[in-house]
Design goal:
Blueprint lengths: L14 E4 L13 E6 L7 H11 L4 E5 L7 H7 L3 E6 L5 H11 L4 E6 L2 E3 L6 H10 L3 E7 L9 E7 L2 E7 L16 E4 H6 L10 H14 L4 E11 L12 H11 L2 E3 L2 E3 L4 H9 L3 H17 L8 H6 L6
Parallel strand pairs: 2-3, 2-5, 3-4, 7-11
Antiparallel strand pairs: 1-4, 5-10, 6-11, 7-10, 8-9, 12-13
Helix pairs in contact: 6-7, 8-9
């Protein structure tokens, strides 16, 4: 686990693509394509594909983790705008999104789960103008519960002593900041996602993986903000995430919280190794290899940093 990926091309999982009658299904009318993640019941998949097609999406990519699913060929024949990416190995959700981003050819990619529904049956051209106006790496939606109550989906950083604490709150204002996309949902700029390295597949814990993406986005000068016009409702309760500090947390900490910013670049101070060793409970030789891998990554990406975590949290104003 020592090597930290620099680009999405550092890993290429094995998968096949089923369906899609128009090449890669490049959008003709919408600048946004759909990347659909699947969990739980899939009884109403056909109706969901029909809803998304009726809204006007020219390109829909559905992420599949069951290669033996008997319904894919039937669905592919019925919905020509849908391509099914079928993985032949077990990979993290972030890795799945990385592949979906590479496969998409639209400038913006709308990531959502199959247990979410758009609260409106149409998205106006003015909405897509707003996507461009907000000029962000990711636009996060309003998320409502199955009963219609607003979910605390805006993630705000705070310091609890020397530790990072995440405070989830309901959205308040269009353009409000969020540290990372809650439940991964949002409209991502494909170009910025790829340039930023996407999700780190070497961080397998889903919570620390998405927090790593969000922190890196902000530390490298990009933004994740709320788009008020984009509203989704859950059909079921979203699954809880494991926030336990584990090996994934150690890599997240080294990449995002440990680096310091000076002048015009970042560096990982050697003095940070002692704290990492004590908290990681690793064998000292293993911990040193992990620390050096992070130091190499920070050195290689040093000029991508525009601030460090201390400054980001200290100056965080969600409505500014």
């Amino acid at each position: 686990m020592n090597t930290i990926p620099l680009t999405l091309e550092a890993r290429k999982p094995t998968y096949t693509v089923i369906g899609g009658s128009r090449g890669r299904n490049c959008p003709e009318d919408f600048p946004v394509s759909i990347l659909l993640l699947n969990r739980g019941s899939r009884l109403y998949r056909a109706s969901l594909f029909q809803e998304l097609t009726d809204i006007g999406f020219d390109s829909i990519i559905s992420i599949e983790t069951n290669p033996d699913s008997p319904e894919l060929e039937t669905l592919a024949a019925r919905f020509h705008r849908v391509r099914f990416i079928v993985f032949k190995e077990n990979i993290s959700i972030g890795d799945q999104i990385n592949v979906g981003m590479r496969e998409s050819c639209a400038p913006y990619v709308f990531v959502l789960w199959n247990d979410l529904r758009l609260a409106t049956s149409a998205l106006s051209s003015r909405f897509f103008d707003r996507v461009v106006e907000l000029d962000a790496a990711c636009l996060v939606p309003y998320l409502g519960s199955a009963s219609g109550e607003p979910m605390p989906s805006m993630m705000h950083p705070a310091l609890d002593g020397q530790s990072l604490r995440i405070v989830p709150l309901p959205p308040r204002k269009d353009g409000e900041k969020s540290l990372f996309p809650f439940d991964l949902c949002g409209i991502y700029s494909r170009e910025r996602f790829i340039l930023g390295g996407g999700f780190d597949w070497t961080i397998p814990n889903p919570y620390w993986q998405r927090l790593d993406y969000g922190m890196r986005t902000w530390l490298w000068g990009e933004r994740i903000v709320f788009a008020q016009a984009l509203k989704l409702n859950y059909q079921n309760q979203p699954p809880a995430l494991d926030l336990t500090p584990d090996e994934s947390y150690g890599r997240f900490w080294l990449k995002n919280l440990a680096p310091r910013y000076r002048a015009d670049s970042a560096y990982l101070p050697g003095i940070r190794f002692t704290r990492f060793l004590l908290r990681s409970r690793m064998n000292p030789f293993v911990a040193w290899r992990e620390f050096n891998a992070a130091r190499t990554w920070v050195r290689t990406t040093s000029f991508r940093f525009k601030q460090d975590a201390a400054r980001l949290i200290d100056l965080w104003d969600p409505l500014s």
